[in-house]
Amino acid sequence: MNTSDQPILSVRHLSLETGVLSLRSLLLERKLFRKTSILKNISFELGRGECLVIMDDGRSHLPVLIEILAGLRKQTSGLILCSGKVLTADNPRRNSIIRPIFARSDKTLENGLDIGTTLDIPLRFSTELRADERAARIRRTLELLRLPPDIVAEHAWDLSPVENMRVSLARALVLKPRILVSNSAFMDLAPTIRAEMMNISLRLRSEYHITQIFAARNIDIARKISDRILILANGAVEEFGETDQVLGNPQAAGTKKILENFSTRYRYSPEKS
Questions:
Q1: What's the whole-number mean pLDDT along residues 1-23?
Q2: How far, in Å, CA of 259 to CA of 263, rounded?
Q3: Which of 37, 54, 95, 258 reaches 20 to 30 Å from 27, CA-CA?
């Protein structure tokens, strides 16, 4: 990211506390409601079209951080800014600025609606486009993902796994978001689908400059798709920097331990030719 450019995304001192109900004394039958910090003072910045992979120690509530970034949960403190403007969880425009995507087929595709209706729903609720304008937006999104226009009449059960993943991504892209976030960097997908989604991810960044944030458990995938890596340990930022620097020459002892754990537990298995 050019230091003279304003970051597309700034996360400043983000924290989350949850109430934990615990028994302080069984003899007295006294209950204590105490607060526990699960995310602590998280800060980072990303430029337009950059990809961030977040990796953690397994105890840092990474899925919760992804939910907060996606606007699905509120943080206790801290700010999330897009192009210098604060985004609150209840901001009506947030849904069209930061969109979640799903590693598995979107559950909304399984509710009996045809694909056209599924793609139209976010446009009806989040924009003021007329019906013909929504239809045109859907057609352009399908073209972007190389899906045939007549797929709008199909249902999820009619599609291949790759087509279902593309439609899930289309549902996120139809609102023209600036940022996409996902709780998985394609790790749970079959190799052919994973390769397809990785290629689409790279194209969205290079051609359309969409910033992307993924949670990941695999070093090889992180190296292939990311510009920057953020390491979480005990709910706080252990290290943040360019991918080659963090993976090739980690500075924090916690980072080295986490990367060593990932290198032995999770291995990337590309599709065999």
A1: 69
A2: 6
A3: 37
Confidence category of residue 123, pLDDT binned at 50, 70, 90: very high
73-82, 138-147, 174-183, 260-269: lowest mean pLDDT where?
A: 260-269
Q: Which of 155, 174, 193 is at the close of a domain?
A: 174
CA 85 to CA 59: how far, in whole Å?
31
Burial of 27 (0-12, 13-18, 19+ CB in 10 A): exposed
pTM of the full structure: 0.83
HSE-up (13 A, CA, CB side) for residue 180: 28
Nearest to 175 by CA among 206, 133, 213: 133
Coil, strand or helix: which one is 262?
helix
Nearest to 245 by CA among 226, 263, 269, 258: 226
What per-residue confidence (pLDDT) applies to 109? 56
Contact (CB, 8 A) for 134 and 214:
no
Statement: residue 70 has pLDDT above 50: yes
Is the distance from CB of 225 to CB of 198 less than 8 angstroms? yes
Domain extent, residue 140, equals: 104-174
**Which amino acid, one-letter code, is at 176?**
K
How would DSSP label each residue in 146-191?
Answer: T--GGGGG--GGGS-HHHHHHHHHHHHHTT--SEEEES-SSTTS-H
Which residues sit opposite 167 in a β-bridge? none
Which tens digit of pLDDT belongs to each residue from 127-177?
Answer: 899 999 999 999 999 998 889 999 999 988 888 878 888 888 899 999 999
On whether both 4 and 79 belong to a single domain, the answer is: yes
For residues 115 and 166, membership in a common domain is answered with: yes
* Residue with the two structure tokens 């790279």: 202
